[in-house]
Design a protein that fits this description.
Elements lengths: L6 E8 L3 E2 L9 H15 L9 E5 L10 H8 L7 E5 L5 H14 L5 E9 L5 E2 L2 H11 L4 H24 L9 E2 H5 L9 H11 L4 H20 L10 E3 L5 E3 L11 H5 L21 E11 H7 L5 E10 L8 H13 L8 E4 L4 H11 L2 H6 L21 H4 L6 H16 L3 E8 L3 E9 L2
Parallel strand pairs: 3-4, 3-5, 12-13
Antiparallel strand pairs: 1-10, 1-11, 2-10, 5-10, 6-7, 8-9, 11-14, 13-14
Amino acid sequence: MKSPRDVVLIDGVRTPFAKAGTKLKGVHPADLGKTALKELTARTNLDVNLVDEVIIGNTGNPVDSVNIGRVVALNAGIPQRTSAYTVHRNCASAMESISQGYEKIRSGTMDVILAGGTESMSQMPTLLPAKIQGLFDKLFAAKGPKQALPLLWALFKADVKQLRALLQGNMRDEYFPVISVMQGLTDPFVGINMGQTAEILAKEWGLSRDTLDRFALRSHQLASKAWKEGRIKEEVVPLYVPPKFDEVLSEDIGPRDNQTLEALTKLKPFFDKQTGTITAGNSCPITDGAAMVLLMSREKAEALGYKPTARIRGYGFAGLEPERMGLGPVYSSPVALKRAGLTMKDIGLVELNEAFAAQVLACQKAFASDQFGRDKLGLGGKVGEIRDDILNVNGGAIAYGHPVGATGTRLVLTLMKEMKRRQTQFGLATLCIGGGQGGSMVLELEA
């Protein structure tokens, strides 16, 4: 039954997603967000004076735009009087932005919210090791050449030690810089990185290397097909590439229409080099990009003459063991489904983030397991099966990439547009979250 306080999705848009270090490496995450947000307000012909709030997900937290949500909003032409803020829930930051918008609209506090996420993983910094940072701290506080020269000499010797560590391949040397992306993808509670958590799932759920590579191939094939047939183009705004701005990026840099199983099988395991199955080919790439959606209350949308695309029926977040974080969707989806008053049997399309092929396939098995439902989730049985023909029908993050702070919105955006194309009544967007959580959101197509 429809209600004036239903939270509806009007439309959404995203930038192209590009592998870190490629075409978007020089684009600040605030500019990525601005591009998507400006295009969304233009496509929807939205009077920006009606926006109650802007909520943006981000994990990199650039030092020159600490509250990047506010920077994105102002650069996109949102009035200064309109509040804006940034949220951080690791991989689900951009889903968290939508869920917070949902709560504010549902409660009657607000009526029009722009939500989404932005991330430049290319621009996440390389950090100085503690010993060298200490030398710089002393240098900045030095009073005159007498104090500064010995510190400069010490820094020179430290540089020599860095070079020696690099040549020896000793990336853990105390003088070697810390790559912040790798540090951020390592769980501080259990001390292993996200790829190692995927290795755990692959072993526990009996997933072979061949199975993982075949799933990765499927992702590229479906994504390439979706681009060729114009489905993904609907959600993407072209972007001029700096520094000359004489080139336009209009497609994702990630999906490979020439990807072969043979090429995938040649890649060596990246995280467990002896017995592992997780490779760069069956994992999502590190990526840059932004995605935004427009949320309204039903009564406001009707008053303004908008026809919503979908209604948010419910969402949910849940926690689990950090070392098995990839199973997060199996924990959070029952929460979202219960709030939506639905079961998995009602769901006609699923967008499940492909952090790793092993993680998605383990989730598929866990969703369909009566024992897992009883023992781990406290249910009477399984959550419900996710058939291949409804799962990531346009490919997923193994092909498109995973700009951490933006992916949650990309999943919702892709889902709602595909629901509209297929006239599918109910859909589920869900993802695992570093640190041992899952996030899920249930959508209903608007008639």
